[in-house]
Specification:
The chain is an all-alpha fold. The protein contains 22 helices and four strands.
Length: about 450
């Protein structure tokens, strides 16, 4: 047997045993070859379509390809279609087979900090470089506009889509239509499903306001968690706080680290590295995967990771990621693949598929809006400030304008625009002015004083 055949034999045996993909370093050790030689052999096997490759740099993993499946597979781990279901790569199929084995047949594992330590921004990648570039090009809003512009344009649709999709992945029983009705009515109930959805809505509104001002910071992510878990955690001191409690995850042999100092260190390191990533889609994927893997908070880690993934997209004016149509079982398998194997192949397939569905939907929403009004663009922040003072602080119109240093003399068109917006304002559209539904309804009930 030639040495390269021995390497292929190792991969085939792993595949048959359901053990999933492996790094070149692991395969070199198992095949008795040097790392450099193993990489050279693996490249030959990939070109011959006998082995599938996922990821880049130190995160690259390899999986055996069954001959009957070769027409479905490529060395790119991500589907290129936006069909009704994801197209799974060779590495994903191999990982799925491994995860189908009983829990008792899988070895318990805990957090591996090398997953973050070995990642070098803009040198190593979790997504393939070509895929991340393609997604960024497809999703970015044209023109030079302030951060968060895209998210603001589609905010009303995003609030429903992302809140419902993310909550559904947590077992929420609301339908999409019921979620729309909840947000439109402004009703408030004390059942957990309703609270979860309203918390998502408030958290998304927070991101749209905070990200352009503060960017990606630890405080932004901590506040994001606090909003998502408000009234859902018994201990309010746990909101936005790095956990000191033990957490366990069902249906996996992964046991998150229970060391607060390590959690704190890795939380900061994830944010620091994500801020250096130039490609917003790679940064979004990096945050989504790593916050879920670390489990830094007492609860709500996966929903925090999903919304946090939108921060780089907002900063670079890319279409938001709302996890449209993702099946809970697919999502769970993708996460467990990372937890137990540090294998991102299923997560990458799922991420690209659902992002393309999101950007297709929101591109249509943006296209339907036509050309933005130059006057509204010029006074967008001033409108937010003045309307907030009138509605929330109950200041008079002239006092609020004077505080914002805008007068009818300086621009008569602004006062006309302001009066028009105040007349149209109600609980169904108040989020664009950073107002709560409750404050808006109270102002309307008072007779719209100004």
């Amino acid at each position: 047997m030639l040495p390269i055949d021995n390497l292929l034999k190792v991969l085939r045996e792993r595949h048959l045993a359901g053990r999933g993909s492996a790094t070149s370093t692991e395969l070199a050790r198992l095949a008795g070859a040097s790392p450099a030689t193993a990489k050279r052999w693996l490249e030959l096997l990939v070109r011959a379509e006998k082995v599938a490759r996922a990821g880049q740099g130190r995160a690259t993993r390899y999986a055996f390809v069954d001959a009957p499946e070769q027409n479905m597979l490529s060395d790119t781990p991500v589907p290129t279609s936006t069909g009704d279901t994801p197209t799974w790569s060779a590495a994903s199929l191999s990982l799925r087979k491994f995860l189908a084995s009983p829990l008792a047949a899988r070895n318990p594992v805990t957090y591996q900090r090398r997953f973050v330590d070995d990642y070098q921004p803009n040198q190593t990648f979790l997504l393939t470089d070509s895929l991340a570039n393609d997604l960024a090009a497809e999703g970015r809003l044209s023109g030079q506009q302030p951060a968060g512009t895209y998210a603001r344009k589609v905010l009303e649709q995003l609030l429903v889509d992302l809140s419902w999709s993310s909550s559904r992945l947590e077992g929420n029983r609301y339908t999409l239509l019921a979620t729309q009705e909840l947000f439109s009515s402004g009703a408030s109930k004390d059942d957990p499903d309703t609270v979860m959805l309203l918390n998502h809505k408030r958290a998304i509104e927070f991101l749209v306001d905070a990200v352009p001002q503060y960017g990606l910071t630890g405080s932004v992510i901590r506040n994001l968690h606090a909003l998502l878990m408000q009234d859902l955690l018994m201990d309010t001191s746990a909101l936005g706080a790095i956990r000191e409690q033990v957490v366990n995850i069902t249906d996996t042999v992964y046991v998150p680290t229970q060391i607060p100092l390590l959690l704190e260190e890795m939380f900061g390191l994830i944010i620091d590295k994500a801020r250096l990533i130039k490609n917003p889609l790679e940064a979004a994927f990096f945050l989504w995967i790593n916050f879920a893997y670390l489990q830094p908070f007492e609860d709500g880690n996966k929903r925090t990771s999903r919304l946090a993934a939108n921060v780089p997209l907002m900063l670079y004016n890319c279409a938001p990621l709302s996890f449209l149509d993702v099946e809970p079982n697919d999502y769970a398998s993708a996460m467990i693949g990372v937890y137990e194997c540090l294998d991102v192949s299923m997560a990458a397939d799922l991420f690209a598929w659902t992002y393309r569905r999101s950007l297709t939907k929101y591109a249509v929403v943006v296209a339907s809006m036509g050309t933005p009004d130059p006057l509204r663009l010029r006074y967008r922040e001033t409108l937010n400030e003045v309307i907030g003072q009138i509605v929330r602080d109950r200041r008079g119109l002239l006092e609020a304008m004077d505080t914002s240093r805008v007068t009818a003399d300086s621009d008569p068109e602004f006062e006309d625009l302001l009066l028009s917006e105040l007349q149209k304002l109600d609980a169904n559209n108040c989020a664009r002015y950073r107002l709560t539904m409750r404050a808006t309804e109270a102002w309307i009930d008072a007779g719209r004083p100004r």
